[in-house]
Amino acid sequence: MLFLLGAFVVLLLIVAGSRGFSLLFGLSINLVSIVALLILIADGFNVLITTSIISLIILIVAIYMNVENAATANIAFKTSILIVVIILIITVPLEFWASAQGMGFEDQEELESFSLAAGVSFPQLAIAIIVVNSLGVISETSVAISSGLNEIILSKPTLTPKEVFSDGFSVGNKILSTQTNTLLFNFSIVLFNELFEL
Amino acid sequence: MKKNVIRIFAVILAVLTVTIITYFDSFLYKNPIIRIEQTQTIKKDKSTDEYKNTDTQIEQKLTGVFLNTNKRKQRLTLKNTYYQSQLLDQKYHVGQQVILSKSGHHYSIKNVKRDTVIVFSLGLVIILLFCMQFSRGKLLISVLLNLLVYYGFVKLLIHNNTNLLLLMTVITSLLISGIALLIILGPNSDALMAYLSTVSATTLSILLSILLLKLSGNSGVHMELTDFGLQPYFSVFYSQVIFSVLGVILDETMDISSSLIEMKKEVNDVKEKVLFKAGINIGRELIGPLINILLFIVIAEHLNLILLYLSNGNSIGYTFTMTLSLGFAQLLISAIGIVLTVPITSFIASKIITRRAY
């Protein structure tokens, strides 16, 4: 594992240069925050409050470290929070409707040796999972769109708000197609094990 | 603009219709299904386990009406016990449709009927894509076709023995990436170029990681910890890695090479070196987002299990070894692939594109 890590770091620094350092720093902050989140929840802190605080930290680091222009960063930050809220409004009712908390029937065997009365609210944890899962995508997308638009406006200051709005769509469309396969393939790997069991 | 509004309305209408149909489709199921009409809490037991976790076990009485089979419209009363934390068991609500299994004359709850909510959520995604004026119809087609190929792959796996797993994975991935690129970029030299970069970047990163893992004697990577202990460990692990790496690299090469093609169209006499540099610059911006996405996916996937380990009195180190070590090894291999793709794609694309005239 250490060899893999070493190879990754070396390659990253060769390819990305100085940008590699800030990338590594951002990644480790994310990792540390998530570990902190897990430990706090396991120690009995409220799931939802802890998740929102940690998410704010992750968003702030991801956005303010990667965007040099302060005004753009502020916009990206505000939109990210807005999007997280909208996602929660859409997905939380769906999650309860589907009773999708906890683990599936197929995991029962694996869990035999555990005390299942964990005292952690798994429905609340399901919400935390949605937030954690979407954070990576949201912060990156909002940064990409805001800085992309910022550059467009700088090069053509005469654009009307309506034109800028439609430019944002075309930037966003490109991002949508760049992330589709990544998300889809990694989801299919999750299914991989379950399908295998059949 | 007006045309678009009409289109969105049509999509919304279609989604609603399909959702409503699945709500009444219980006659399609072989297992009996009831709709819960009444719930009542009978008993509450507060208990503390050996790790000082306090939880409440609750027993509820459920009354429901059969929706299918020859018992249609008859009533049934069931008991359900669950922990308040609801890890494997759950609380049932009035109005929920529940699938039962029957043994002898006794019914027990098998699962919640989830088809309505799944169809609705999928519909919601489609509606949102239409609202965003998502213009990449080709991408959707390629995704659908690839799901079909993947389904075939899994079917084949189930029917055959798993000795050929790795070989089949390689063939499937070659097929899937080929289909995606052919449909999205069209049957031309652009697609061939992207295919070449995708395959070589994937192969290189997988071979490199196999070599590195061999060198370190697989330390820290517990392949026997795959879910369900699937055999053979090596093939299962690497099949997952291949699919994971391929998805990311496919996105990355498409992005870099299409940007470079566009650049060549704008500046016809662009130099090979300039193109290569531009490719590296574009690629740099992609590395961070893609790795971050994978990181969050890996962790979110295991969140439930990690908390169960922690609340069962395990140390943090042990918990992470048992739950995340495989995921992280996969993540690192993907990350290496993501980084390697940037120079490989830029190199291949700049070589091929500069020779062309537009």
From TrEMBL, chain A:
InterPro entries: YibE_F (IPR012507). Pfam families: YibE_F. The keyword Cytoplasm does not apply. It comes from the Bacteria. Keywords: Membrane, Transmembrane, Transmembrane helix. The chain crosses the membrane at residues 30-63, 75-94, 114-138. This is Integral membrane protein. It comes from Companilactobacillus tucceti DSM 20183.
